[in-house]
Every structure is written in C-alpha cells, then in structure tokens.
Specification:
Layout lengths: L5 E3 L5 E8 L3 H9 L1 H7 L6 E8 L6 E8 L5 E12 L3 E8 L8 E10 L2 E9 L3 H9 L2 H16 L6
Antiparallel strand pairs: 1-2, 2-8, 3-4, 4-5, 5-6, 6-7, 7-8
Helix pairs in contact: 1-2
Length: 162
C-alpha cells in the first residue's frame, strides 16, 4: 500500500516531511547515503536524471547532487556538508542550491525510526529566514520529494538492495 508524504511547518523557518516505508531502517539509510542507490530514486518528477551524485559520508565530508532535465538538458544542483552521522538512524547536513547562493545554507536533519520492520522517515529543513523557507516551498520541492519517495518505495524497497 503506498504511503503519503506528510508536510508540516513546525516554525516560520522550518519544513518537515514525514513518510513511512515498509522496509528496515538500515535499507532506507543505505538508500539515502550510497551514491549508486541515491541516483536511482532521488530524481523528483519523471523526466530527470542525476549525472552527479558525490557523497563523502563522514562528519565534515561533502556531497554534491546535480540533476539534468531529459527535455532540454538544463541542470541544477545542491551541495552541502555532513555535520552528524549516526548510522542507520540520523544524518544532519547543510544544503545550498547552486543557483541561489544568496539563500544561505539550510540545515537538514534526517531521522529514521524503525518499528516492526517499518521505517518512519522524518526530514526537517531549517532555513535562515522565513522568506527563504517560503521561497523554497514555492519551488514545488515537496512535490518532487513525494515523487522521489514514491520511486524509492516502488523501485528499491520492493527488492533486496545490495
């Protein structure tokens, strides 16, 4: 049964998304931290690919994602630094879009809680200002996250990851 993405605004600077997956936490964690797995599902709506997915998974390590439109070849990307890693339950990192360097870094906290073989993912993004949070919401980012999480569940979590 597909699960829906729950989006809330816990403060004027934060966006929180929650989704439950029918999979163990270690598998969901691997899908968020191993480049070969990330580039298979973190694509947003149909018509996008991820030609760059670099992850140096250690505290102080960097990551960089670049997406490309199949329709016109346009690209956009994000980069950041890992601040805290507690495998397989928590990752804290910064996030900055390439195209809007003046937006500052968002602080993102991913938490994975497993109960009876099901994992609840909570992703909280804290922005520098309410205006930046609102601007991020207007990009349709939560729709893209929902499409990506649907793909994660449909394409990776229905079969063993390895």
């Amino acid at each position: 049964m597909p699960h829906t993405l729950d989006v809330t605004l816990p403060s004027d600077r934060e966006i929180r998304v929650t989704r439950t997956f029918d999979a163990p936490r270690a598998v969901v964690f691997a899908c968020h931290t191993e480049p070969d797995l990330v580039r298979r599902w973190l694509l947003g709506p149909p018509g996008w690919s991820m030609p760059v997915c670099d992850i140096d998974l250690r505290e102080g390590g960097q990551y960089r994602y670049v997406w490309r439109s199949d329709a016109d070849g346009s690209e956009f990307g994000f980069r950041g630094e890992f601040r805290e890693i507690v495998a397989p339950e928590r990752v804290v990192h910064t996030e900055r879009p390439d195209a809007a360097a003046n937006m500052g870094d968002a602080l993102c906290t991913l938490t994975l809680v497993e109960r009876d073989g099901r994992t609840t993912l909570t992703q909280t993004m804290r922005f520098d200002t309410p205006a930046i949070r609102d601007q991020a919401l207007q990009t349709g980012m939560t729709d893209g996250m929902g499409a990506s999480y649907d793909r994660l569940e449909r394409e990776l979590l229905q079969q063993p990851v390895g």
